[in-house]
Predict the 3D structure of the following.
Amino acid sequence: MVTTRKTKLYAGARKQARATAAIMPGTGRIRVNNVPVEVMTPTVSRQRIMTPLVLSGELRDKVDIDVRVSGGGFMGQAEAAAMAISKAMVDWTRGQELRKRLIEHDVHLLSGDARQSETKKFGGPGARRRKQKSYR
C-alpha cells in the first residue's frame, strides 16, 4: 500500500519579499509563479533558487514544488523562494542529513537573514549621510 502525503505550505522571507512553497509527490517539476525554474531570468536568481535543489540530490526528482513569490526585488524574491524550498524539502525528508548539508552550505537557507535596509532620515540624502558644512 502506497500512501501519498498531502500538499503542505512552507514560507520564506527576505527583505520585503515573501514566498510560499507547496510540495507534493511528483516527477521533479519546480515552478516559481507558474514559470519553470529552468527558464527563469536573471541567471543569478535562478542559481540561487536552484541551490537547495542541487544540494538535495535525487530527492528533487521525487517531488513537485510550486512557489508563489511577491514583493521586493528579484534577488530578495530568489532568496525567499530558496528558503521556502529548503524548508519544504527538509520537512519532506524528515531527516537530518539534508538539513546538515544545507546548513554547511549556507545557514540562511533555513534560518533566514534578518537584515533590512535602513530608512532615510532627515538632514541628508540617505540613511546615514548628512549635508556637509562649509564653515569652521
Summary: The chain has one domain: 8-110. The mean pLDDT is 91.
